[in-house]
Amino acid sequence: MLPTRRPRAPTRYPRDREAPYRRRGRDHPRQRGGRPWRRSCIRAVRSRRRQRRASPLTPDASITVRYVAGVYVASPYGFSRASRAFYVDLIGRLKKAQLGPIDPWVQRGVATALRRAGDMAPGDARLAAFRAVNTRVAEANVRNLSRADALLAVLDGVDVDSGTASEVGFFAAAGKPIVGLRLDTRQAGDNEGATVNLQVEYFIESTGGTIVRSVADAQRELERRLRSPANASR
């Protein structure tokens, strides 16, 4: 009878005592003080807090700057992909100037609602869906116009965009400052004395606004009118 072989015992590897702590994102109890990167982050946060406490912001009483709730940007640039890039650049320049642009083309869920309405079969339900989206967009625009402090109206085109013209009239009735921006070189006025439609131009000028020919001039006009003493007292 051949001798039987004893089964070999399984190899035992040393237990990694730090593995549970690494998986949970914690430090091992033996590592006093925590990880080096964590200590540096804590020091940086504490340093910023000390600096803010040591040097609080003290506004200059001689400078009166009105709080800018936002500049509503009325334009037809959102309809076309060709002009969308310029519109995005315009919004970015207003943000950089801290004018708080209000973009009416950014409304949550509107694109999805329009797509769903367009996928519906022709009929009363489809018509009702489109009307509901239209009402939603129009009400959001009215809310944004009501809370804005100034209006930047883009007046490009052979004729002023109908939506932009209606927003100019709404803002003029509220007595808030309007700045018109026309980069189009074509003649669009009713005669030589008008840059654009005479009624639109009258609404802009009745609020103390003007029509400029460059983005830089529009930015300066908005800053001047929003930071003027007359607007600061509102």
Structural class: alpha/beta
The largest beta-sheet arranges its strands as 2-1-3-4-5
Q: Predict the CATH topology of the domain at 71-106 and 149-232.
A: Rossmann fold
Highest CATH level, the class of the domain at 71-106 and 149-232: Alpha Beta
Number of helices: 9
CA gyration radius, whole angstroms: 31 Å
Helix content: 40-55%
Note the overall shape.
extended
Show unreliable segments.
55-68
Calculate the mean pLDDT score and round it. 81
Q: Major β-sheet, in short?
A: 5 strands, parallel
Number of strands: 5
What is the ordering of alpha helices and beta strands?
HHEHEHHEHEHEHH
Second CATH tier, the architecture of the domain at 71-106 and 149-232: 3-Layer(aba) Sandwich
Tell me the span between the first and last alpha carbons: 110 Å
The fraction of residues in strands falls at 5-15%
